[in-house]
Design brief:
With about 325 residues, the chain is an alpha/beta fold. The protein has helices at about 15-30, 45-55, 70-80, 100-110, 130-145, 160-165, 180-185, 210-230, 235-265, 275-305; strands at about 5-10, 35-40, 60-65, 85-90, 115-120, 160, 190-195. The chain binds uridine-5'-diphosphate (UDP) and magnesium ion. Uridine-5'-diphosphate (UDP) binds near residues 96, 156 and 207.
């Protein structure tokens, strides 16, 4: 099968028939063999009935329905597990992404050798309250992830080589950083294509401004786990040791300073009279705790079932 189109949706009943007809037209025109995977993320409107109806009329339509609303990432993850196409396309259900982009995205994966191609909504039809923070979001994501050539990390319209979606795991709200996840999994041929974007036709957006706070926290998590997930001691141990030794030296300065003054007949006070003593003590305690956090982190990492899960690309066996 050429293409799997994975569509996560939450209360998008009005858009679905139009979207399905549009995709079907593009697929026919280009002679693609395809499947559409609708992932109903616990919609409370009649989206699922609409999908059942679409599936009756088009054998290429598949559907999965969650019992409750889990979020876009779990929906994508579920779709990815089921996708059979050589190229997997994701798109939003709200008609903001155009199916007309699919043939070109397909070509970029199959002929140009990209592992992942992300859409870039260069001209966006969203409110300013969203487009401005998005610029900041993307600049930060570029910096932290090291993927310099992407302008729009969170574009819903993306294309993947099948093995990419089978390898990466999207959970929580991590759909915002799929290119970063792919890069961490070793898929470095990441491209971008300018795509047409439309204003939302029906319904309303499912994400508020908290997306930016959560997005920022998730980025830190991803940065941390990709750098130190397998070896937490390298992070906590270094930080803890540094703090401990700074504290130790400070305590020694306070202590020996007093002894020196005593010995030379100068003025001296209780060490506990000096604020430096308390600062030094706190630093030593925090340093020790960071270090112990490193040990606990190592114990947890050691128990991970994925600690030796490497993706082997090719191998040469001995032969006669
Ligand atoms: N979506 C989903 N589960 C959710 C929230 C959103 O499956 O909990 C879907 C939604 O139906 C749409 C896509 O994710 O197909 C993008 O959502 P939306 O259009 O609201 O985001 P925006 O375009 O405002 O960034
Ligand atoms: Mg949208």
């Amino acid at each position: 099968m050429d293409i799997s189109i994975v569509i996560p949706l939450y209360n998008e009943a009005e858009s679905l028939p139009e979207l399905e007809a549009w995709i079907q037209r593009v697929m026919k025109e280009n002679d693609f063999s395809y499947e559409i995977l609708f992932i109903n993320d616990g919609s409370t409107d009649n989206s699922w009935e609409v999908i059942e109806e679409l599936a009756r009329n088009n054998p290429n339509v598949r559907g999965v329905s969650f019992r409750r609303n889990y979020g876009k990432s779990p929906a994508l993850n579920t779709g990815f597990a089921r996708a059979n196409g050589d190229v997997v396309i994701t798109m939003d259900a709200d008609l903001q992404d155009s199916p007309d982009e699919i043939p070109e995205l397909y070509k970029m994966i199959t002929s140009d050798g990209y592992d992942l191609v992300s859409g870039w909504k260069q001209k966006r039809y969203d409110p300013l309250s969203k487009t401005i923070p998005t610029k900041l979001f993307n600049a930060t994501a570029r910096k932290v992830s090291g993927i310099r050539n992407l302008h729009d990390f969170n574009c819903g319209l993306k294309a993947y080589r099948n093995k990419v979606v089978k390898r990466i795991e999207i959970y929580g709200d991590m759909h915002r950083y799929i290119p970063y996840l792919a890069k961490n999994a070793g898929f470095t041929r990441i491209g971008e294509k300018v795509v047409h974007h439309q204003a939302r036709k029906y319904g309303k957006t499912k994400f508020g401004l908290d997306r930016f706070v959560n997005g920022y926290l998730d980025l830190i998590t991803l940065w941390f786990t990709s750098k130190f997930g397998g070896k937490p001691m390298h992070f906590f141990g270094l930080l803890g040791s540094l703090m401990f030794f700074v504290g130790l030296i400070a305590v020694m300065i306070v202590g020996f300073g007093k002894l020196w003054n005593m010995h030379n007949g100068g003025q001296y006070h209780l060490v506990t009279d000096s604020p430096y003593f308390y600062l030094a003590l706190t630093t030593m305690i925090l340093g020790t705790q960071l270090f112990l956090t490193g040990f606990i982190g190592e114990l947890i990492a050691r128990n991970s079932i994925r600690r030796n899960d490497y993706e082997i690309e090719t191998e040469i066996e001995a032969h006669e």
